[in-house]
Specification:
By secondary structure, this protein is α+β, with helices and mostly antiparallel strands. It has two domains: about 30 residues, no CATH class; about 70 residues, no CATH class. It has two helices and five strands. It has a three-stranded antiparallel beta sheet with strand order 3-5-4, with no helix packed on it. The longest helix is centred in the last third of the chain and has 8 residues.
Length: about 100
């Protein structure tokens, strides 16, 4: 079936480029998925922390009320609620359009 050039997000080099690894199509991931639940701690690996191409973001705590942050890690307090996410469109209009 051929090969697939896989790029690992954690494999970004200090200059911002990423190398790829050739793997078989049958072994290629179909999508990046990681399920988290309340109480899980999410953070960056030592490899990612050493990457000089990454720039820390200052995100106000009010934007992520479901996440208790400490430096480069965070503990998921609960699943995000609809009102936690700022939508740039009216979901009611989409529901009305597709329910015709």
């Amino acid at each position: 079936m051929g090969n697939f050039n896989y790029i690992e997000i954690g494999g970004i080099r200090g200059d911002g480029t990423a190398g790829s690894e050739s793997i078989l199509h049958a072994e290629a991931p179909s999508r990046a998925t990681w399920y988290v639940k309340a109480g899980d701690v999410i953070g960056l690996s030592e490899k990612m922390l050493a990457n000089t191409a990454l720039t820390p973001l200052e995100i106000p705590e009010a934007l992520l009320p479901f996440l208790a942050r400490e430096k480069v890690a965070g503990k998921l307090l609960r699943a995000p609620k609809r009102e936690d996410v700022q939508l740039l469109f009216d979901t009611q209009l989409i529901i009305e359009y597709y329910s015709r």
